[in-house]
Amino acid sequence: MIRIRTFQDEDAEAVAKLVYDSFRSFLGERLGDRFEELCPQLSADHYRKTALHRTEDVETVSFVAEEDGQVVGFLQAEARAFGLGSLNLIATAPGSAGKGIGSSLFEAAYQFWTERRLRKIITSVAACNKTALAYYLRHDFVPEGYRKDHFFPGVDDIELARFLHY
Ligand SMILES: CC(C)(COP(=O)(O)OP(=O)(O)OC[C@H]1O[C@@H](n2cnc3c(N)ncnc32)[C@H](O)[C@@H]1OP(=O)(O)O)[C@@H](O)C(=O)NCCC(=O)NCCS
Fold it and tell me: Which pLDDT does position 97 carry in this prediction?
């Protein structure tokens, strides 16, 4: 059974590997030899420092999906000023796509955003990442813009927004 819970420091090693493996699954072929240089695995410490964080006007929270004691999904969400929020990062373990893990993580983030009465959630997706684009459209994000060679040379990005109504 899949359980969604808030990130804990002990998850950091597993999350660092999961995010790396997950991004390699859709960018590895595209970036080829340049993947390691452009998209290296971030340290466990990076996730310990950034997964749950709060400043005066930005609150960051991260959720993990756990199955049989293993971390199989990660989502980082933010709440900002002006009723804005963002979905910073989502990744599920390669091989576990289509099992509803991403949607369960989205539900946790949705609760976080609506509790704060946010009105607009932004994110972006690589235009070549058809699975993730379908995932965002399924969760009522709409395209807002297009950025060429944005995070990586040769990889265009689609900006997306989800409006929340009360
Ligand atoms: C994108 C991702 C988070 C989706 O998570 P998931 O657990 O597979 O998603 P779910 O099982 O909850 O499916 C939700 C919706 O996503 C879409 N989807 C999921 N897998 C899909 C696939 N293989 N092909 C097409 N659409 C797919 C469907 O619209 C699905 O809705 P449906 O079940 O009603 O048809 C996951 O595939 C992933 O981590 N990919 C690699 C990392 C990544 O791309 N991150 C986003 C970077 S911007």
Answer: 85
Residue nearest (by alpha carbon) to ligand 1 atom 22: 131
In a domain, 166, yes or no: no
Residue 15 neighbours by CB distance under 10 Å? 24
Q: Domain count of the chain?
A: 1
In whole angstroms, give the CA distance from residue 101 to residue 98: 7
CATH code: domain of residue 13 = 3.40.630.30
Residue 64 sits at the vertex; the CA angle it makes with 60 and 158, to the nearest 5 degrees, is 65
pTM over 0.90, yes/no = yes
Q: What is the span of the domain harbouring residue 118?
A: 2-122
Q: In Å, what is the CA distance from 165 to each residue of 65, 88, 113, 127, 160?
A: 27, 21, 11, 27, 17
Ligand 1 site, CB within 6 A:
22, 25-26, 90-92, 97-103, 125, 129, 131-132, 134-135, 138
> Would the pLDDT of 155 be above 90?
yes
Q: Which atom of ligand 1 is nearest to the CA of 135?
A: 16
Ligand 1 centre to CA of 72 (Å) is 13
